[in-house]
Amino acid sequence: MMHWIRRLVTRAAATPAGPDVESFDQFLEKHEVASGAADEVIAQEKLRLLSEIGEAESIRDYGGVWGVRGLYLLEGIKALGATRAHMIDTLEDEEFIRRVEELQAERPVRVEITQADFRELGLQERLEPVDVSLLYDVILHQDDACGVIRDVLRRTRRYVCLAQPVLREEMFRLPNGCVNLQFYPRELKDRLQVFGWGPQERPRDRFCTGCWIWGQTVSFLTSVCYGYGWDREHLKVLGFSRHWNYALMRFTPRGPSEPEKQSEG
Question: Does some domain include residue 101?
């Protein structure tokens, strides 16, 4: 074992030092970045992601109570004409409950509320599939982000709407970039703060689902969904800061892969 380690160290030491002259910029995703990522603009774009779908029978919102009190679930019900809705959030909010009751007095819609962390292991297996799922500002840099996205996709039939801050593609040398910001030094975290997005949490020595912030890019989220069989059908990117953009994406299922088609035949 030690002999193998010595060989590895010797080989690394023999590698010429200095900058890599090869550029990978041509492989990075290129997309237009619009200006004006104000809160009201982001809210309008989130609603547009939903309304452009047209009609849907059912909708689920993951973590949509905090900050907006179920705004996008409730407006989604109206825009899509949904008759079944589901909110999953750890928060219990009386204002959200009141808004649900007011909406139910106006139209026939069944609204289920589950007070839980949707990233909880095994929770998704117990959920009914829905036509539309909302992931708005909730794919933080938890250790199981890919698994969370996978489970949401498995419980969605038609559309997943995803919106959140993302690191600019040019922060990375290669495409599909994602970094673990949770354990960055405090000074580096402070340099990457986004206009108040992301709490100043205490240092931690274990993964925490609510801890610091988003570490993904547009190309990373796109590639993860693609790997689970979903294509990005809509993208709008708003400039946020020197290091960050705000991305609004909508995904649809691609259908079975060629090997799956052959096995079905």
Answer: yes
